[in-house]
TrEMBL record:
<dbReference type="GO" id="GO:0016747">
    <property type="term" value="F:acyltransferase activity, transferring groups other than amino-acyl groups"/>
</dbReference>
<dbReference type="InterPro" id="IPR016181">
    <property type="entry name" value="Acyl_CoA_acyltransferase"/>
</dbReference>
<dbReference type="Pfam" id="PF00583">
    <property type="entry name" value="Acetyltransf_1"/>
</dbReference>
<protein>
    <submittedName>
        <fullName>N-acetylglutamate synthase, GNAT family</fullName>
    </submittedName>
</protein>
<dbReference type="InterPro" id="IPR000182">
    <property type="entry name" value="GNAT_dom"/>
</dbReference>
<feature type="domain" description="N-acetyltransferase">
    <location>
        <begin position="1"/>
        <end position="130"/>
    </location>
</feature>
Amino acid sequence: MGIYIADKQDMPWVNEQYEQAGFVPSHYDHEHIAIVTYNDQFAGVGRLVYVSEDEAEMGGIYILEEFRGLALAHQLVEHLVQTARDRQLQQVYCLPFEELLPFYEKFGFKPASSTLTSIHTAVAKKHQWCLDNYDKNVLLLTLI
């Protein structure tokens, strides 16, 4: 297992995974995109999307089906949270499906309604898009 930081040449693969998952595509220029590997194969992907100089939305956590059950999502989220902390971001949002709340709480995420008075407009719009487009409930969390 390892983490590989995507470069521009990896973007077709990254967005192919996001298309299969029904996620919003990535845009290399304002994102930190991490690919988790297993036995030197790309096994999953996740990202920090910078919405301002000191705010980001962590998301797009997707592990390919054949690599699930290997704790790769844990490694990927751990990397993204550490990257956010290393960059001293003031706010990190996350928009997971409701059933994933216990997983994200392990990393310090809490429901935004209990922690924030204002939410970045881009994140609020994406949250609404998720609520409108997914059959499952999508939460808005922030990193504490």
